[in-house]
Amino acid sequence: MNKRKLKESSGTDGECISQVQKMLRERLCHHRAMGKLFGIDQQYKHLLELLKQTTVCGESNSALIIGPRGSGKTALLNRVLKDLREMKQVKENLLEVHLNGLLQTNDKVALKEITRQLHLENVVGDKVFGSFAENLAFLLEALRKGNRTSSCPVLFVLDEFDLFVHHKNQTLLYNLFDISQSAQTPVTVIGLTCRQDILELLEKRVKSRFSHRRIYLMNSFAFKQYIRIFKEQLSLPAEFPDKAFAQKWNSNIQLLTEDKTVQDILQNLFHYSKDLRSLNFLLMLAVSNVTVRHPLITASDLQEASKQYRMDSKANIVHEFQKFIQRKAHCMYNFEKPVVMKAFEHLLQLELVKPIERPSVRSQREYLLMELLLDNNQIMDALQAYPNCPTDVKQWAASSLSWL
Amino acid sequence: MRVLHRPVRHGDRHRPSSARRQTHSPDFREERRQLPLPLPPSAIFFSGSVSLPVSFPDSNMAAPPSYLLPPSPPCARARRRGRDCRSKNCSFMCFCFSSGIMDTRQQSKIIYSWYGKPTNSDRKLRTLQYKGILIKSERSRKERCIQLGDFVLVEGENADQPFVAQLLDLYEDGAEQKHAVVQWFSHISEIPKNKQKLLKRRISSQEVFFDKVSGYDTDIAVETIIDSVLVIPLRLKDELPTRLKKEKIFCVKQSWDGKCFKALSPHTFSKLNEANRKEDGIPNSFNSFVPSDIISSAKKETKKAGSSATKTKNVEMEIESKHSASKSSLSKKRHSLRVANGIKNPTARKKLELNSPTRSPKSKLLEQEDIWALLDDDCDSQLLKPTAIKRKVKFTEVLSSPPKITCANDKLKSVFGTAEDQEVLSGTLRLSPYRKLEDSNEKVRSLNMEVDAIVLTGHKELGSQSPAVTPRSRRTCTQETSTRIAEQISLLNMLESKEEEDFLSSSDGSYSSSSEEEDSDVSCTPEKKTKPSRMFSTPKSSRKPSVHTPAKTPKKTPLPGTPRTPRNATPEIPRRSHAAQKPTSVLEEARLRLHVSAVPESLPCREEEFQDIYNFVESKLIDGTGGCMYISGVPGTGKTATVHEVIRCLQRATEDDDLPSFQFIEINGMKLTDPHQAYVQILELLTGQKVTATHAAVLLANLFCTPGPKRKTTVLVVDELDLLWTRKQNVMYNLFDWPTQKHSKLIILAIANTMDLPERIMMNRVSSRLGLTRMSFQPYTYKQLQQIISSRLNSVKAFEEDAIQLVSRKVAALSGDARRCLDICRRAAEICEFSSQKSTDEIVRMTHITQAIDEMFSSPYIQAIRNASLHEQIFFKAILAEFRRVGVEEATVQQVYRQHIALCRMEGMQSPTVSDILAICARLGACRLLLLESSSKYLHMRVRLNISQDDVMYALKDD
């Protein structure tokens, strides 16, 4: 099969391949503005409507986008913002402030960043000076002066919203939500978080000021949709320069989706996690295998990728270092003490075993209580995968781990 | 004639013996500990030898209380004014407070003494009446006589606006306090905005109104009188003569009784006119007193002007003159100096430093060091460390020539009009004190007395010389006096600017203007370093560089400097480019009306609470007293809204003149970065000053604890009170203590969530001051919520009746939070709008409400579990199974893993690897469906559910 394809595609030039690579990689990794949204039309509409209300009518709002990691929260927001910016009434009518809980670790930094991004008048060059109190007073004053009809709406995007909750007194959140609930400059506060219990973390007066709009991204699609996403992610668009190649490629993808092995692989992945990021990762590995000599993705490519993707890291290590275990198992009779100790240290380094308590100076190393950081299954798997394993190790494993 | 001695930093001879003792008080020791350099006692007292018995009979005074706590009213008053020491205690307090807080004010002493013999005495009231008062400024040698009927400027709480008043009576009461009874005049800015419209004409800034408002206290302390002014009565149609336009002269055309303006009655008019005429008869009311011999000596010494020594002195003189300049430009400067604490005042420090070379050479070096130590210390110790500053003042006093002469000289210059003359003079004037520098204190004192005498004699001569003394008509008199004032002021300004230029050129660009330095209290770190250098680099003082220890301050100083927030930055959000869209449909209109921010026409369902708060504030307003009220209630029950509504109603009432006017300010604990910032915000809202927290606390304590004339009542709303909690609770303490002060006229409405906050977190002394006037807002019942929504929607027919009821019941059952209720309605309107794109006449029905409620209240967990991937669900099952097996709601990943594999085998699925399991575990942990330990423990990481097992079962069962 492989060979046949090779022959077929001998005519295609390397340029096409590189273009495909570029396009697909961008799509799979660089999921910024171009990322397509799958299965979250409703959320998209809701968010777009919400932001439109703010920008067009000057209505203040606050909302949280909640969903597990990789569920497309940022992609959704970016998409909405992109579409919003293209609208006529919104163009240059919206100030955006992007904050990230990992960067703005306290309110002081966050305030400075807000002031900077808003280009308020106390920004000197690119820096904001003045004390925390001054900045806060200044910002609040600035926002208080505005009103619904005349001031430019401000959009606050708080990425990793849950980290803002831990700021002292939740001052920033209180103030943002308070502004959104009072007749001041129209603002919309959008928080992005993966924590489902986020509302319980808000102080009650902050919570009361939050408008309780929550947009959930749940990855709530079935396997059929998953397959379709897979297909769409790999398909080439109609505007691809080389029409013939695109057609061939797309038909190949169509074949792949109907392939049993591919479906199995996808099903398996789907069972483990439904987020699209893992799918993209898998596809990325597969796409990377595409070369001039190997121009089309095959089922085996995917299989290989999924194997790579779902490799059990520890099992791998176990495999390589089985011999140390073997030595350790033999230590009672065969080996000298230094050798055993060396092997033991290796195990420690690889974190295959771990001392239960912190190693103290007093206790001798030989008598430390250790903890095995492996499951018996992993050892068994590793032993099976290791052909040259000495028989007595196998025996030991079989006898002492056999109860499984 | 009684003479009041105010404690003055410069007037060393008035230092009581107790002042020395005071330096050994605990406060002082504390001070010492904070000094950067250990000071030998001699260094502290090297100039303090001039201690003379004065009118401070009580020398066994207790140590002052903590500065932060508001002191008893007279002391605080002394602290503010820094010049009355009418009571025994006060004399002491004056020293410790005034020196710390506003030493600038005390650079000269102002003595208020009666003019003439008591005209009348009332045995019963034990009062003595006088017909005039002499205001004598010790340093500038200015003496003004203000008589009954004269017009005066009276210190107000705001720097820019001294009050104008006419003296009606002067008397001294049994406690030897000087009082004045005045007739107030209102400036246009004191009249409420809405009333200003009644005038229907433009009011010049010089126009005042004859004040007939009854509410103001007309009995003031004499010490608040700043200066005399002229007030000319004019007919309504008369214009103020153009040549007077620029002068410090007021005119009065109408009277103001708090409700309307009336033309002056002929009686008042003639009375005012009379008062003016009488004023002309007093020849010396504005004159400056310059000893004639000084003038003559000045002429002799002209040749010496070139010498370096004179130059040094010149600089000093200029600075001195600047000081007096700031004083003479009336209350604005007076106030600003008072506000800016002494350490910050660059001129004061410059003078200090410049003076130092005049010391005897032997001790020079040693003392330099001391000075520096002290200066450093001054830098560190701000207002709360008064002793250090006092010490500084002490030695400057002796080091420099008696300041009086310099000020006299200042006056001289104003008479002669040229700066050059003054320079020369300054040189000459300095000679006499130099000679006597080594003399004993007694001699210094006698010198001072001598100078006093000279000045006094000189005054008469000059008084007769001066051309403007006996004018023929009132007009010319006023004109001339005023021109002279203007001349003087402009001259001083010129000098000031010249001096600034000098320093600008000598130091670096960092020094923009001294006045700016003065009020920039906010960030003081760079200033601390720049100042000394500036002093060094003054080129005029040629001798200095050799004297100073150059190692101490390298010349580089003007730190690249943190450019502070641009002062003039206006906080503003850019305007929007497109106009906001008007609501097009009924639903949109409804949505806008339901937004929490929309201010409703009335506040339904809080009538009782509204009435209670209104009555409370109203009664306090009418009584002119202060008080606290504590308002509690869970979030979203309308506390702040009700209070705002009350304030709005009260403001409306004051506009209709049913109530005395008041000032409303509001702070919010959550909008402060630190509890102490509350002071800063309150002060800024009250007076517009921006100062540091500690300074603001002192100023506020002053404001509220001293009896100020014509003070309005202040209504202060403190939202989120619990955020103002500090360990010592001094912010809360102060807030609740001020209203209890007699003169504060402060009404505090404190708002917080918890009902038992005073008992729970406040100390007894704080909660006792808060008092028992409390009110708690109960959560809204469903009927109330229903009413709120209906009233907000008003006539807009967008909701079904049942739908509103459903929301209300639902929210009332949960929290009674009106905000939540409105949010749900708004969302429901949105959903409705969404679902019915075509038919526009849709109104919000039950289904929409249910959907919105579901959206807002549904637990996210169940949905999250249902939407989890298969293995994640199996993992949950495995956890449940493991929990059931062990009987403890906690398990390690390893245990769960085994269960998981078993489950997978049962279902005939491929079993996951450990890495997979750990990935699943981490994902669920990030969503907080599971609670995890830190992942370093790998398989032994313990897992717990963040939801109840039942919920998990319920979520998994349906599949």
Automatic annotation (TrEMBL), chain A:
Q: Which keywords, in A-to-Z order, does the entry hold?
A: ATP-binding, DNA replication, DNA-binding, Nucleotide-binding, Nucleus
Which SUPFAM superfamilies does the entry mention?
A: P-loop containing nucleoside triphosphate hydrolases
Example GO CC term: the record gives: origin recognition complex
Query: Where in this chain does the record put each AAA+ ATPase domain?
Result: 59-219
Instruction: Kindly indicate whether the keyword Nucleus belongs to this entry.
Output: yes
Q: Where in the cell is it found?
A: Nucleus
What processes does the entry annotate via GO biological process terms?
DNA replication
Summarize subunit and interaction data from the UniProt record for this chain: Component of ORC, a complex composed of at least 6 subunits: ORC1, ORC2, ORC3, ORC4, ORC5 and ORC6. ORC is regulated in a cell-cycle dependent manner. It is sequentially assembled at the exit from anaphase of mitosis and disassembled as cells enter S phase. Interacts with DBF4. Interacts with POLQ.
Q: Which family does the UniProt entry place this protein in? A: Belongs to the ORC4 family.
Give the InterPro entries listed for this entry: AAA+_ATPase (IPR003593), AAA_16 (IPR041664), ORC4 (IPR016527), ORC4_C (IPR032705), P-loop_NTPase (IPR027417)
User: Per its database record, what is this protein's job?
Assistant: Component of the origin recognition complex (ORC) that binds origins of replication.
Q: Tell me which PANTHER family the record gives.
A: ORIGIN RECOGNITION COMPLEX SUBUNIT 4
Q: Which Gene3D superfamilies match?
A: P-loop containing nucleotide triphosphate hydrolases (3.40.50.300)
Return the protein name.
Origin recognition complex subunit 4
- From what organism does this protein derive? Gallus gallus
TrEMBL record, chain B:
Question: Where can this protein be found?
Answer: Nucleus
- Under the GO molecular function aspect, what terms does this record hold? ATP binding; ATP hydrolysis activity; chromatin binding; DNA replication origin binding; metal ion binding
Q: Does the record carry Cytoplasm as a key word?
A: no
* Gene Ontology annotations for the cellular component aspect, listed alphabetically: chromosome, telomeric region; nuclear origin of replication recognition complex; nucleoplasm
Q: Where is this region: Disordered?
A: 1-32, 300-334, 462-483, 499-584
Q: Which PROSITE patterns match?
A: BAH (PS51038)
Q: Where would you say this protein principally sits, based on its record? A: nucleus
Q: Which family does it belong to?
A: Belongs to the ORC1 family.
Job of this protein: Component of the origin recognition complex (ORC) that binds origins of replication. DNA-binding is ATP-dependent, however specific DNA sequences that define origins of replication have not been identified so far. ORC is required to assemble the pre-replication complex necessary to initiate DNA replication.
Q: Can you state the subunit structure given in the record? A: ORC is composed of six subunits.
The protein in question is named Origin recognition complex subunit 1
* Species the sequence originates in: Gallus gallus
